Model the fold of this input.
Amino acid sequence: EAPHGLSLPVYSIATADPSPTKYWAVQWWLYHPASEQRFLMDMFRGPMDAPDFLDWNENSKRFFGLMEDWQQRSSELTWPITHWIVENNAAQKFLMQYDHVDRWVRKNKVQIVSHTTGMNKLDPEYGIQSIANRYQFGNVRLPRKPREGQSTMEHMVVHQLFKEATTYPDSPTDDCLMAQWFFEYNLPRLRADIATMFEK
Done:
């Protein structure tokens, strides 16, 4: 459910850290600049193929997949996702080469932002460990209960993010934290872009 009483602007951004062999980590965040709060609206962690993320059914003339589901739900909650941040190599492999993705982007008036992971991941100021301050100062809000239609097991993926955030760099996995880092790392340069959108 969407948080209540937030003054504008509120940014609605999704991230994806895909993996062809292991788990994908996909997150949808609301960011409220006035309070510096980040609200995790939904999260997926598990194996997935590219068509499960976004595809087109020629027979029914409909888009389907997680991106389509979340995009429509975000619009229904009046906070439509404006940007999808996807790891660069995966974006080229799973998204940018397909015509139906271009059509979906135009239809939903969103941008797909490629994130390049390199040595910046280990940077003490801008890397993954920079997220620690967001948790330390209470800027991150995680869902307390499953959304409608979501099983308790599906909701447990949120605890995986919490576990990684509280044990990094000793956690055995970091895919959930990586997805959040994509959001935090790209947020400063997206703020001006999104602010312009609110002005129009």
Summary: The chain has eight helices and eight strands. The first strand starts at residue 11 and ends at 17.
